[in-house]
């Protein structure tokens, strides 16, 4: 069956959807009937999709095109107003992650989707990785033994241009509206959401305890180097230690510490390493999964907005915690100029990894810059 689709947000992450939509149109599973953006289409998108309906206002575009579903890949603080318009128009929704920048907003959109009986998938694409599915199956079957903890680590690097690309980058709020663009709540949100999902702890009340160390190397409102430790209602300890100030970036990993086996999930690479043995897997995208779910409701959504309660609780706690502390200049090094300028914390790569291995916080690891 061919579903009609509208995309809101056409550049930035939206360009990933444009590529996928091109492929799915080729297979005949979707037809892109409209594009919404507050800015004109960039040259590439205009060349390819200039013949489709375009509007700067989503509600007007939805009234004109009546699509089956809408993909919203716009800045986080626009998710609630645009998501509302989608559901009010009777369309299914694929909403980029993090779904909403506050608990109140998440509850509002969830209730609306439930009242309207519409599907709302969240774009946590790591939950569509078959490596994730295989690990979740092994854990459910008890293959890893008792799981004492899950430790996640991530070490990326961002330059000044990243924070200057848009008004919402690096913000907790913008013009009085929550944004939640911290390292834990946005770039590494996948690590938090995937760890919670592996523990079957996706509901709001599945979190029994939550501590965090929020730090930053830049003049921003949010954390860029942080460590989170949670205890879930199942008794599992989950730590997530991340930085955007690494000199040697590596892809993030979730380490599952079982009493019988150890697993590493490299969730951006569909790679599962079981007791040191690598397994490569494929993935199903959030859009493909949503289409399959609409064709056959027996196919569960990979990430129903209803399953984002625990994640949203973490996000809300991080975004409303005392402001992240600025790391002293004496622990930092600088590289590059202008928009390419980067700040590094020497040794941070080892610290985030040690956190995941020992389920320890930066302070417990005696990281000097965290003291
Ligand atoms: N799944 C992932 O791995 C991943 C990766 C990167 C970003 N994202 C998410 O994608 C979303 C977009 O991020 P981005 O960095 O591309 O943002 P962005 O600031 O680059 O904006 C994306 C597009 O949305 C448009 N836009 C802004 N406000 C709009 C509005 N009110 N109506 C219509 N269009 C509007 C912008 O003009 C732009 O073309 C965010 O939720 C972000 O967290 C997800």
Description:
By secondary structure, the protein is α/β, with parallel strands linked by helices. It folds into 2 domains: about 5-125, Rossmann fold, CATH 3.40.50.720; about 130-280 and about 305-370, Dihydrodipicolinate Reductase, domain 2. Helices cover about 30% and strands about 25% of the residues. The protein has helices at about 15-25, 45-50, 60-65, 80-90, 105-115, 130-140, 160-165, 190-200, 285-295, 310-320, 350-360; strands spanning about 5-10, 30-35, 55, 70, 90-95, 120, 145-155, 175, 175-180, 205-215, 225-230, 235-245, 245-260, 260-265, 270-275, 275-280, 325, 335, 340-345. The strands form 4 sheets. Strands 16-15-14-13-7-12-11-10-17 form a 9-stranded mixed β-sheet, sandwiched between helices. Strand 15 (about 270-275) and strand 16 form a beta hairpin. The structure holds nicotinamide-adenine-dinucleotide.
> In this structure, how is the largest beta sheet organized?
9 strands, mixed
- Principal-axes geometry comes out as globular
Bound molecules: nicotinamide-adenine-dinucleotide
Oligomer: single chain
Architecture per CATH nomenclature, i.e. the level-2 architecture of the largest domain = 2-Layer Sandwich
Uncertain segments of ≥5 residues (pLDDT<50)?
none
Structural class: alpha/beta
Q: Quote the CATH topology of the largest domain.
A: Dihydrodipicolinate Reductase, domain 2
Give the neighbour order of strands across the main sheet.
16-15-14-13-7-12-11-10-17
The number of helical segments is: 11
Which superfamily, in CATH terms, is the homologous superfamily of the largest domain?
Dihydrodipicolinate Reductase, domain 2
> What proportion of the residues is helical, as a percent range?
25-40%
